[in-house]
Amino acid sequence: MFLSNVTIKNFRLFQEFTVRLNTGINVIVGENNSGKTALVDALRYALSVNSGEWTRIQDRDFRKGTNAFSIQLKFEDINTRQAGAFVEHLTHEKNAEGQGRTSVLYLNLLAEQTSTVRGTRQIRTEIRSGANADGPAIEREAREFLASTYLRPLRDAEAELMGGRGSRLAQILESSEQFNEPTITQLLAAIVTANQSIMGNDGVQSAKGRVQAQLRDLDFKSNTLNPLISIMGGTDLAELTGIERRQMFRATLERLQLLIDAQERYQGLGYSNLLFMATELLLLEQEQHDFPLLLIEEPEAHLHPQLQMKFLKALREGFSSRNSSLQSILTTHSPNLASKAPLDNVIIMSGAKAFSLRPSETNLESGNYVFLEKFLDVTKSNLFFAKGVLLVEGDGENILLPSIAQLLDVAFEDYGVSVVNVGSLAFGHFARIFQRRGKDALQAEWLSTRVACVRDLDLRPERAKIAEGNIYGFKKAVPRNQAYWESHYADNPGGRTQWIATRKSSAGQNVRVELSDHWTFEYSLIRAGLSAEVYEALKGDIEGYDALPNNDDELRAIAIFKDIAESSGGKTEVAYKLSALLTNRFGSVVTPSPEGEDEAQAEARRNADAAATLARRDELRSKLPGYIINALEHVTGVALKPPSQEAGPDAAAA
Are 39 and 26 in contact (CB under 8 A)? Predict the structure, then answer.
């Protein structure tokens, strides 16, 4: 039995929400306020939790403008024993093949705000079965069968592991198979023996005498009170009934405390949380629930990255292998956990919608899953939490694009954009993560993350070939790379069109492919207008720039790009230097305030600085390749082109 589908209406930020869950582990990722906590709370409200924690529906749980919500849970793969527990609540549906019927269980939590009584709005709730919530009410005993284990975020692990009423440690010990009647009797006998030793201690007896004397001064002389100092009441075991013995056993367990290490009794928050999670998993395993469901919010709380990954591995390979029926739902903000989870078990939350990455719901093919399982590391998995993603193929773009965005006043940090360097051949693998299978015509069901693949055109100009008399040529023409030369398509426009179509094959839905205007990223920067800046970043100064063929943009770009390719640092070092140069040349203008400046003068100075900054920004934008501007506009959602470039002269005039 497992929880297969969750459907929620008008609960908090959910208007119409649905998600299909996996049988084993489900890793829910996404940015803040995407609905992860709301989903977990919806499950807690509908199922309740094993710890006995009391949950209460409040006014804030209703979506704004509504006075009723519903949470429907669907359970599948019900065995005979489980069917017996819910026989009157089962729904018999056609199976996936359309042949025969299968039994499923629907649990519906219905909540409605009713009239106000004494200034407080009353909330009426009911839990019913049936696909349309028209079945009989589900009684508490049946709901306890479905109770989940819940690990809250930022939990007070030390308090949870202390002794006391409702102690989780006491529950673990009490449910252990090792505690049978003989071992319980042995433990209680040890308590009674210890109790007798305490009572016989001279210090205890002296204190008891003083208390008794004080009582006699306060009480009537006809009463003969005889106080007792003991561990568990000091009752002889032979006088206890079976129920009393069990109560004494439980009370003994509740006085025990669990510490993580015998030598270092107190540890930091991280290890305390690790110990607490270990006890919860042990309790879940010992109790052998027919329906073990584990809800964990932010398991990364107080755990450093390596421990986070160790925890997930233990959950996947250790605990789950011993308890194959366990279903777990984890919400996380950690790229470490996201990178180590099986990709088809990841569910992205975005805009109060859920997007599962299982094969039937994405454009990912089997080969994509194999590739991503191997290469989706911690750095790249931050794309699960981004509003916009730039997929780039080299260090140059990875270094320069954030700097360029900052200078154009669309800093990636301000727009939730991540840059992911995927290498030259991996665009399709990563892009398909964000594309929903069979949803090309249904824009409302697209993943809202804006993705731009920034790719090189990789068509080399003819004059870059090594040839007699060509001092700027540096690329050797061999048969196997003939397809990369512009001359190959000179008399074959269809071939060029096919080349571009192949390069853009990853596009679709909210994924765009922006091809370089010429050859490569660096070459396009030179051709577009940054030739002097790239030359200075490469050489350290501008000396010698005027000696280049300045009347021929292509040949000048080839000459500079040749020097980059042949330099010891290569493209990466030039990118770092160019980033610093652009920041210095096109960054914000801030004029120091002169001594004695009044408010009017300060305002005029600030306005002049703002105008100068805007002029610098416009100058940089005019020097950039069009495909870079297009990519930045897509991932940030901000228009960067002047109106004249966006929609022609009429828009500019307007």
Answer: no
pLDDT digits 0-9 by tens, 389-427 = 999 999 999 999 999 999 999 999 999 999 999 987 789
Residue recorded with tokens 């200075």: 536
Distance between CA atoms of residues 331 and 152, nearest Å: 10
Whole-Å CA distances, 52 to 47, 123, 158: 11, 21, 18
**Cβ atoms < 10 Å from Cβ of 227:** 11
Domain limits, the chain: 2-156+283-355, 168-253, 362-587+624-653
Q: Which residue has the tokens 């977990």?
A: 40
Name the nearest CA neighbour of 96 among 124, 70, 77: 77
Q: What is the DSSP string of 364-426?
A: --HHHHHHHHHH--TTGGGGGG-SEEEEESSHHHHHHHHHHHHHTT--HHHHTEEEEE--TT-
Place of tokens 């279903």: 327
Is residue 73 a contact partner of residue 6, using CB atoms and an 8 Å limit? Answer: yes
314: phi then psi, degrees, rounded to nearest 5: -65, -40
Pairing of strands 353-356, 346-350: antiparallel
Determine the Cα–Cα distance for residues 538 and 91; give it in Å rounded to an integer.
Answer: 72
Instruction: For 590-634, write each residue's pLDDT tens digit.
Output: 999 999 889 999 999 999 999 999 999 999 999 999 999 999 999
Contact 451, 434 (CB under 8 A): yes
Run of H or E residues at 623: helix 599-623
Q: Which residues of 493-504 are buried (b: 16+ CB within 10 A; e: fewer)?
A: eeeeeebeeebb
**Pairing state between β 327-332 and 293-297:** parallel
Block residue for tokens 């199976």: 95
pLDDT digits (tens, 9 = 90+) for 95-135: 777 677 899 999 999 999 987 666 667 899 999 999 999 99
Residue keyed to tokens 């205007």: 517
Please report the pLDDT score of residue 195 as a whole number: 76
Number of C-beta neighbours around residue 562 at 10 A: 16
Cβ atoms within 10 Å of 165's Cβ, excluding its own: 8
* Sequence-distant contacts of 254-262: CB under 8 A, at least 24 apart: 254/163, 254/164, 254/165, 254/166, 254/167, 254/170, 255/163, 256/163, 256/167, 256/169, 256/170, 256/173, 257/161, 257/162, 257/163, 257/169, 258/161, 258/169, 259/161
2-156+283-355 sits in which CATH class?
alpha beta
What is the SS3 assignment for 115?
strand
Residue 123 CA to residue 125 CA, distance in Å, equals: 7
Q: What is the pTM of this model?
A: 0.81
pLDDT at 285: 67
> What Rg, from alpha-carbon coordinates, does the chain have?
35
